[in-house]
């Protein structure tokens, strides 16, 4: 058996999957109707909506199997998400990647696999709509197109879910997506005994930009700040727009020194950007952060509350300093 290689951008892909808030949720008719249709149209015993997590594949919808999830290293879908088109294996027992796979050599003794990748709006391949058979077979060109059409139906449902967890303007996670993804991140940190930090950031003077220059300039300022967060924090860090002019960053495997380094990079990025924009739309912001450790047992709501309070203490302190300076 040859496990699928892990894509270079897998951390971003997994983060996008977690942000949907779909993993470990109950079955839904909107997905089940597609797998029932696939099973009937292709006359196969098994059809799945399979989402490939960091270490497992989890089935949002399953027809013909009892298992809710399987290890990623034995999954066929781990291979399928490496390409943009339908992956077909006519005979798994005759393929060096899969001939001794436990799903081929043992129950459920599958011999055929075809999977169409499921992508989000950013192009991350999150999983597949796949069909499996106990007998070798081949798809026709029309069959492959049909499987792709059914996968598009699943993709539309996933995009509807993504729209509910993504801020339309900045394309960062919104509060709902951030809280759902954050709980997954904290669960990983707890399992690996790693610390985490949550940063809360608030744009200063944002109301004046809106009032004096209009909402278009206000929106542009929000997008610039979101781009600065996205560009300066680590790929594994989770950035979000919580609402209005409030943003947050969850840093996994991070201590105070990592926070200060990240904020230093952000300050430099904002400084360079402000040098190229009129003073009236220059970005200014206040920050605060909260500490989390595996021993604390705190959740995202507590972290957000503590970081928010720290941010407002910083904002009030800066306000007093500005008054003294004048």
H-E order: HHEEEHEHEEHHEHHEEHEH
Mean pLDDT: 92
**Number of H/I helices:** 10
User: What class do helices, strands and sheet pairing give?
Assistant: alpha+beta
What is the tally of beta strands? 10
CATH class of the largest domain: Alpha Beta
**CATH-assigned fold name of the largest domain:** Beta-Lactamase
Helix content: 40-55%
Instruction: Report the major sheet.
Output: 6 strands, antiparallel
Q: Distance between termini?
A: 71 Å
How much is the radius of gyration in Å? 23 Å
CATH architecture of the largest domain: 2-Layer Sandwich
Domain GGDEF: 194-326
Protein name: Diguanylate cyclase
Organism: Pseudacidovorax intermedius
Pfam family, one: GGDEF
Q: What is this structure's SSE topology?
A:
Elements: H1 10-19, H2 29-42, E1 46-52, E2 56-63, E3 69-71, H3 77-80, E4 87-89, H4 102-105, E5 112-119, E6 125-133, H5 141-165, H6 175-192, E7 196-204, H7 206-213, H8 215-232, E8 238-243, E9 246-252, H9 256-274, E10 284-292, H10 300-325
Antiparallel strand pairs: 1-2, 1-6, 2-3, 4-5, 5-6, 7-9, 7-10, 8-9
Helix pairs in contact: 2-5, 7-8, 8-9
């Amino acid at each position: 058996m040859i496990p699928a290689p892990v894509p270079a951008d897998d951390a971003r892909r997994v983060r996008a999957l977690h942000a949907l808030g779909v993993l470990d949720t109950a079955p839904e008719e909107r997905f089940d109707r597609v797998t029932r249709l696939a099973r009937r149209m292709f006359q196969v015993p098994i059809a799945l909506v399979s989402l490939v997590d960091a270490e497992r594949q989890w089935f949002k919808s399953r027809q013909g199997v009892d298992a809710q999830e399987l290890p990623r290293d034995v999954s066929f879908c781990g291979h399928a998400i490496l390409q943009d088109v339908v992956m077909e294996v006519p005979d798994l027992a005759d393929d060096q990647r899969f001939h001794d796979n436990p799903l081929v050599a043992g129950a459920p003794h599958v011999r055929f696999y075809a999977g169409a990748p499921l992508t989000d709006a950013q192009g991350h391949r999150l999983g597949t709509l796949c069909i499996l058979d106990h007998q070798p077979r081949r798809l026709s060109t029309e069959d492959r197109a049909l499987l792709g059409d059914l996968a598009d139906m699943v993709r539309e449902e996933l995009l509807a879910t993504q729209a509910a967890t993504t801020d339309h303007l900045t394309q960062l996670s919104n509060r709902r997506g951030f809280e759902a993804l954050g709980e997954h991140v904290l669960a990983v940190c707890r399992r690996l005994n790693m610390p985490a930090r949550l940063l809360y950031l608030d744009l200063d003077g944002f109301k004046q930009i809106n009032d004096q220059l209009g909402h278009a300039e206000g929106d542009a300022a929000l997008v610039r700040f979101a781009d600065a967060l996205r560009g300066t924090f680590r790929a594994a860090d989770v950035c979000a727009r919580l609402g209005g002019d409030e943003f947050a960053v969850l840093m996994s495997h991070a201590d105070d020194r990592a926070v200060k380094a990240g904020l230093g990079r952000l300050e430099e990025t904002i400084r360079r950007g402000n040098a190229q924009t009129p003073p009236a739309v220059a970005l200014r912001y206040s920050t605060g952060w909260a500490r989390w450790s595996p021993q604390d047992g705190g959740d995202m709501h507590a972290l957000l509350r503590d970081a928010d309070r720290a941010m407002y203490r910083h904002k009030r302190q800066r306000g007093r300093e500005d008054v003294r300076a004048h």
